[in-house]
Design a protein that fits this description.
The complex is a heterodimer.
Chain A lengths: L1 E10 L2 E10 L2 E5 L6 H9 L6 E6 L2 E5 L4 E2 L2 H4 L1 E4 L11 H10 L10 H7 L15 H14 L4 E5 L7 H18 L3 E5 L2 H7 L2 E6 L2 E6 L1 H7 L9 E6 L3 E3 L2 E6 L2 E5 L8 E6 L4 E3 L10 E13 L2 E8 L2 E8 H6 L7 E6 L5 E2 L2
Parallel strand pairs in A: 3-9, 3-10, 7-8, 8-9
Antiparallel strand pairs in A: 1-2, 1-4, 4-5, 5-6, 10-11, 12-16, 13-14, 14-15, 16-22, 17-21, 18-19, 18-21, 19-20
Helix pairs in contact in A: 3-5, 5-6
Chain B lengths: L4 H34 L5 H13 L2 H12 L4 H8 L8 H25 L3 H9 L4 H12 L1 H16 L3 H6 L10 H9 L5 H34 L1
Helix pairs in contact in B: 1-5, 1-8, 2-5, 3-5, 5-8, 6-7, 8-11, 10-11
The chains are: A alpha+beta, B mainly alpha.
């Protein structure tokens, strides 16, 4: 998918002025609330008309003030998943799901309702009324409805913000699986760094109505390490734990990680703040932290007075964060050997 | 309680006039409410004032304007006269009078219904491939059904009670343009017909109660449906 946008839109005292070109399947639009992310989404989908400029999707002109082109939203084939599910309250779950499918031309119907209903596990919900669904179920139906419209591009406008943490990470696998299974490129709008890391490969960073950076989730996380309250978030997907003295022992590459709050079976996703990793120059002999690894410094980066240390633990990567003076005192440089200690309780289970 | 054959005619005429006026006004009311709620255009405020004017004007004034417009020398009257369709002093004039007076109530209710629709539902529908008229028919219409029902019953009730504008453009001709309020007015002006007036008043009350009950039941039914 290739999206080229050079557009301007004034709304009251707010001016959105975006000039960017992105290619890829999993694109993120990141920025604080009020930065113009939603306005941008409205311009792309055609629900709002730019004051001037042009928008091209896969080299097809969707809008151009110079050429006088403005494709109506229903002809752009860009479906939206909103923050609130926005299911049609007067229709059943099934009718909601098929709303876009029925309006899609036969030759464009690539995704069959049955396949999708199975994938999103919607079968038990079909005959229910929309009001009798939980928040997570509603969002799943909304996602299904958008996918069944067989869009060329899916816009997800903070689709997880209205859900609590537990539900959020239950929905993410669905979001990822539909885009992988059906190969629908998407724009994922959010102000959550974790969601960006999990959902996107490439990011447009928006601030005050302007596109200030084009980056990757990892680069953005590094840049924001110092200002973010949790530092850089290491995301670890671990599976098949063995119980050990009340802790969960997970295989992590060639190493074993001890985690206090794990999941009995299956795969689990953990978040580890860069600030929870303590570095030692020499082996500390005795230590209360349950995880101690010998590692080498693979890379170092700066973020507003803090130093991010990319550690390689037998090939596995972790980002630790220390202040400038600590880095100087320990004489850390790329290639140096360090010992990293992490408490078993430092891993926060996301899902 | 006694009703003369003329009273019965008046009752039927009242129902016929109110029903026709409501049915006639409904599509226009819906379209106008849609324009006001969803469209941006110049002169919107002027249009809103115009639509609401009959609400604040004395019905007699409306009747008089209609008379000027529909009378033999009025703009519309001339055309109609030439094509052989007399309006003034027929039941059709009563319909027009009722429709004009009740119209703001209808538009107001439909508007309230439409304003309560989340804008994002409409956006969702459009982005799922529905053209504007498709969204209008499949999302906006069903979701403003409560407002439409409320507006229709309000307008119907208001039309049943129409007096001031009707008496001017349709007159008070028993059997032809005499609706319930006009008949009551006739009875009330002669002291000997107090019981006759009272009978028609009771019929009025009865019809009003039925309209309100139907209104409530429909509202409940719509509530249940949307809760499913």
């Amino acid at each position: 998918m290739n999206l080229r946008i050079d557009a301007e839109k004034k709304q009251g005292s707010f001016l959105l002025q975006v000039n960017a070109e992105v290619s890829g399947e999993r694109i993120g639009i990141f920025g604080p609330s009020g930065s113009g992310k939603s306005t941008l989404m409205h311009l792309i989908s055609g629900l709002l008309q730019p004051d001037r400029g042009e928008i091209y999707l896969n080299n097809e002109c969707l809008f151009s003030s110079a050429k006088g082109v403005n494709r109506s939203p229903e002809r752009r084939r860009i479906a939206i998943v909103f923050q609130q599910a926005m299911l049609f309250p007067h229709l059943s779950v099934k009718a909601n799901l098929l709303y876009g499918y029925r309006r899609c031309r036969t030759e464009n119907r690539r995704i069959r309702p049955d396949t999708l209903i199975n994938l999103l596990k919607l079968q038990p919900l079909l005959q229910r009324g929309v009001e009798n669904l939980s928040g997570g179920e509603k969002q799943r139906v909304a996602l299904g409805r958008a996918i069944l419209a067989n869009p060329r591009l899916l816009l997800m406008d903070e689709p997880l913000s209205a859900l609590d943490d537990a539900l959020r990470f239950q929905i993410i696998p669905y979001l990822r699986s539909v885009s992988e299974e059906f190969r629908i490129p998407y724009l994922f709008i959010s102000h959550s760094m974790t969601e960006m890391q999990l959902m996107t490969d490439h990011i447009l960073e928006i601030e005050n109505g302007r596109c200030i950076d084009e980056t990757t989730p990892d680069q953005l996380a590094r840049k924001r390490m110092a200002q973010s309250p949790k530092g850089y978030l290491n995301l670890l997907s671990l599976a098949a734990p063995v119980k050990q003295h009340g802790l969960f022992a997970y295989q992590w590459g060639k190493n074993t990680l001890l985690v206090s709050d794990g999941k009995e079976v299956g795969e689990a996703l953990f978040e580890l703040s860069s600030r929870e990793i303590i570095l030692f120059k020499k082996h500390p002999e005795a230590i209360s932290a349950r995880n101690l690894f010998e590692c080498t410094v693979a890379e170092m980066f700066e973020s507003e007075g803090r130093v991010g240390i990319v550690l390689s633990v037998e090939g596995e990567k972790l980002v630790a964060e220390i202040v400038r003076s600590a880095a100087e005192e320990l004489m850390i440089s790329v290639g140096s050997t360090l010992f990293a200690a992490i408490k078993a309780s430092s891993f926060r289970k996301l899902a | 309680m006694t009703l003369t054959p003329e009273d019965i005619v008046a009752i039927w005429l009242s129902l016929k006039v109110a029903l026709t006026a409501t049915a006639l006004a409904l599509p226009f009311g819906f379209a106008l409410a849609w324009l006001i709620v969803f469209k941006k255009f110049r002169g919107k405020v002027a249009l809103e004032v115009l639509v609401n004017l009959p609400l604040t004007l004395p019905p007699v004034v409306i009747g008089f304007f209609l008379l000027l417009l529909l009378g033999k020398n009025g703009w519309i009257g001339k055309v109609l006269d030439a094509s052989g369709i007399p309006i003034i002093f027929t039941w059709k004039a009563a319909v027009i009078a009722s429709a004009t007076v009740g119209f703001p109530l209808l538009v107001r209710s439909i508007r309230l219904g439409m304003e309560s629709i989340d804008q994002q539902l409409i956006e969702a529908s459009r982005s799922l491939g529905a053209a504007w008229y498709d969204t209008l028919a499949t999302i906006i219409l069903p979701l403003s059904m409560r407002g439409i029902m409320a507006g229709s019953s309000l307008m119907f009730a208001r039309s049943l009670g129409e007096f001031g504008a009707t008496i001017i453009v349709a007159g008070n001709i028993p059997g032809i343009t005499q609706t319930i309020p006009l008949a009551i007015y006739d009875y009330a002006s002669s002291p000997s017909s107090v019981t006759m007036a009272l009978s028609l008043c009771l019929v009025s009350v009865l019809i009003s109660v039925v309209v309100l009950v139907v209104h409530e039941l429909l509202g409940k039914k719509l509530d249940r449906r949307s809760a499913l």
